[in-house]
């Protein structure tokens, strides 16, 4: 985990911004992928990163892969809502995507670490923060080992980071235990539906505030 920088709010929110965070291997990306398959109106923020592309990852689909120089240029031009150093690489959320989502009134998912979650909450206060919690540390270790993308030393580092990240879950709006993927996905769906029905988001044309009886 490293320092996180944030930039000013862009515009008044219209869409629902949903932040999914979990320790590495906790399942936040998989949960998001399943939600996108089930709901065509849901979209995912594609984070920018300086880390190398993993096998099967696509430019602009999984991440916007940037060189260190390109990332620094975007920081200088204030093109990020937030960015951070995570496991030795830079990650950031682009302002352009957030602006587009707010204007379109869409449900957008941001798959970020806890630093990103806290930054999103500060800069976009109506963001909905959901912490995806693995059922146990032993299960988290099993998942990290099973995916086969990191060395033993890297897995150890991610587990140590995961322990620190899990202390943040009380700061989130909701906690979902990812023991069963289908159940975890359904829980997130229920949260989104509840957020849609909040009075603070109510804007039905027939019931505008201040409308008088004629």
CATH class: Alpha Beta
* Global mean pLDDT: 83
Q: What percentage of amino acids are in beta strands?
A: 15-25%
Q: Say what the CATH topology is.
A: Rossmann fold
Task: Describe, in plain words, how this protein is organized in 3D.
With about 210 residues, this protein is an alpha/beta fold. The protein has seven helices and ten strands. A five-stranded mixed sheet has the order 1-6-7-4-5, sandwiched between helices. The chain has a five-stranded parallel sheet with strand order 3-8-2-9-10, sandwiched between helices. α1 packs across α7.
Short description:
The chain is an alpha/beta fold and 214 residues long. It has one domain: 3-Layer(aba) Sandwich (Rossmann fold), CATH 3.40.50.300.
Notable features of this structure?
Rossmann fold; single chain; alpha/beta; five-stranded parallel β-sheet; 7 helices; globular; five-stranded mixed β-sheet; 214 residues; 21% strand
Question: Would you spell out the secondary-structure blueprint of this structure?
Answer:
Layout lengths: L3 E3 L9 E6 L6 H11 L3 E3 L3 E2 L14 E2 L2 H9 L3 E7 L2 E6 H10 L2 E5 L2 H10 L4 E6 L3 H11 L4 H14 L8 E4 L3 H16 L18
Parallel strand pairs: 2-8, 2-9, 3-8, 4-5, 9-10
Antiparallel strand pairs: 1-6, 4-7, 6-7
């Amino acid at each position: 985990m490293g320092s996180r920088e944030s930039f000013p709010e862009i515009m008044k929110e219209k869409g629902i911004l949903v932040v999914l965070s979990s320790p590495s291997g906790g399942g936040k990306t998989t949960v998001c992928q399943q939600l996108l398959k089930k709901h065509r109106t849901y979209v995912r923020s594609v984070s920018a990163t300086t880390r190398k592309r993993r096998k099967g990852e696509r430019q602009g689909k999984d991440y916007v892969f940037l060189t260190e120089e390109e990332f620094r240029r975007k920081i200088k031009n204030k093109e990020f809502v937030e960015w951070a150093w995570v496991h030795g690489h830079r990650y950031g959320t682009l302002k352009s995507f957030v602006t587009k989502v707010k204007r379109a009134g869409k449900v957008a998912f941001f798959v970020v670490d806890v630093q990103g979650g806290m930054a999103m909450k500060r800069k976009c206060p109506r963001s909905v923060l959901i912490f995806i919690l693995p059922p146990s540390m032993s299960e988290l270790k099993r998942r990290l080992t099973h995916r086969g993308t990191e060395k033993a030393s890297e897995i150890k580092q991610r587990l140590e980071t995961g322990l620190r990240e899990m202390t943040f879950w009380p700061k989130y709006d909701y906690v979902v235990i990812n023991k069963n993927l289908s159940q975890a996905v359904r829980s997130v769906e229920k949260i989104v539906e509840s957020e849609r029905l909040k009075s603070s988001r109510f804007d039905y044309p027939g019931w505008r505030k201040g409308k008088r009886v004629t």
